[in-house]
Amino acid sequence: IDTIEIDPGPAELGVFLSRSIALEHQDHARRLTRAATDEFGAFLSRPQWDWFTTHTFKAEYVSPKEGDRHYFAWLNSLCLAARVRGHGRPFWFRGTEFQDRGTLHFHSLIGGVGDIRRLLFKDFWELHGFARVEKYDPERGAASYVGKYLTKTAADIRFSHNLKQELSGRVEA
């Protein structure tokens, strides 16, 4: 049996190299995205968070503006409860995404709530849908989970003005 060696021509070699370079770029982009998410998660791990929250709407469609209105009304109630209890204003970070069914979905890290009853605020949200308000456990990776919003295309991140103070206070300590 004779063997025939096939020498790829310039066109085939160019296609092979283009695919190889494209795959290398995709792999590099994935590594950078993973690194950015990890670093952002580490950054978000600096403050002393109290709660990790999930807010889902029961309506099939809620506009981002309407979603913000409901979230900030909920958050303002939390700030009022903190003030009544003699705490400072809570600090927070929120990531927004759309669920598979097309409705908004929020995840938040919230700190500075002291002894406020988290289940009360779970119940407050349930006028709009489903909520989980869990005690923050740094071992469960919520900061990194919420940090993924940095690299999501259709995601939105928001944070309180006083988060900067909390971050700089912890860095100096």
From TrEMBL:
Domain annotation Replication-associated protein ORF2/G2P: ranges: 50-153
Organism of provenance: marine sediment metagenome
UniProt-recorded name of the protein: Replication-associated protein ORF2/G2P domain-containing protein
